[in-house]
């Protein structure tokens, strides 16, 4: 069995566990997507209590539904938010939390981010990211992750590294349901590693 097949088996196992346990916010489960899990708001609140969050001024967050509470809390805390556009089709969206009083909930959604993003590239072109938060399907305690299989998360991290918007020391986190934390994630050369895993129950620093 090759690594691609191993990853697919792992994804299905996680999807099944979340769906059968009643932990998905989607009526038909999360198959083929980043799990939108019940308790994503709790995981976001746990992250927001961390020292990494409190030190950060600019946070990058993936556009996945499970990370909507993370984006909301970032804007509520008046942080700068950089969000990848869905499928990276339109690059990155930049939002200034200090300018969004009262509309943070709407702005934290994919549609709202497009509506409230700042179009002036000069305001964020050279801005460094203090904390990155990706969506994941499965993660192990060594920080290895897999997404839904399209490679967007790895591309986002690699691109931000290349642009020098993040460094090797930048906290690279994910928020997940405990069922997404597994013993082993098979990896390939292009897979990016995380150094912080946040569940509804704990923070794991690698």
Your description of this structure?
By secondary structure, this protein is of the alpha/beta class. The chain has a domain at 37-175: 3-Layer(aba) Sandwich (Rossmann fold). It contains 7 helices and 10 strands. It has helices at 3-20, 40-48, 51-55, 68-76, 104-107, 110-116, 152-162; strands spanning 58-61, 80-84, 92-96, 131-134, 138-140, 145-146, 172-175, 181-182, 196-198, 203-205. Strand 2 and strand 3 form a beta hairpin. Helix 2 packs parallel to helix 4. The longest helix is centred in the first third of the chain and has 18 residues, at 3-20. The protein is globular.
Q: Going across the biggest sheet, name each strand in turn.
A: 3-2-1-4-7-9-10
Overall number of strands: 10
Question: What is CATH's topology name of the domain at 37-175?
Answer: Rossmann fold
Query: Span from first to last CA?
Result: 29 Å
Query: Given the structure, what is the number of helices?
Result: 7
CATH superfamily of the domain at 37-175: NagB/RpiA/CoA transferase-like
Based on Cα principal axes, name the global outline.
globular
Helical coverage, percent range: 25-40%
SSE succession = HHHEHEEHHEEEHEEEE
Mean pLDDT metric = 91
- Main sheet specs: 7 strands, mixed
CATH class assignment of the domain at 37-175 = Alpha Beta
Annotated CATH architecture of the domain at 37-175: 3-Layer(aba) Sandwich
Helices and strands, with pairings:
Blueprint lengths: L2 H18 L19 H9 L2 H5 L2 E4 L6 H9 L3 E5 L7 E5 L7 H4 L2 H7 L14 E4 L3 E3 L4 E2 L5 H11 L9 E4 L5 E2 L13 E3 L4 E3 L1
Parallel strand pairs: 1-2, 1-4, 4-7, 5-8, 7-9
Antiparallel strand pairs: 2-3, 5-6, 9-10
